[in-house]
Amino acid sequence: MSQIRQIAIVCNPQAGKGKSLRLSRQIQQQLQTRQIAHTIFSDTWPVNFDGFTDVFIAGGDGTLNYFINRYPNISIPYQFLKEVPETILPGNCMETTVLKNILTVHSTASQS
Fold it and tell me: Which CATH architecture has domain 6-104?
């Protein structure tokens, strides 16, 4: 039975002079291409992640520290993404390994 994915993307729009916000938008584009449900939280983060299957954290060390302290009892998988891929274009085989692996895992899991 396949599980419907619902991914929360949290980011600090100030991290890396806006790089984390750009990364969030690039991830969003890839998720939309793969028809994976998602929500981006930048200025206001949720109280909890009820209804979500995964969390992607886009930002720097401070963003990760804030996430860990704000959600110490999180029980769903989360992935910290710090680097902004140079190019992510639909169908482009130059996607970063990290993003490819994350999206492949989600595609495979949704087909199970």
Answer: 3-Layer(aba) Sandwich (3.40)
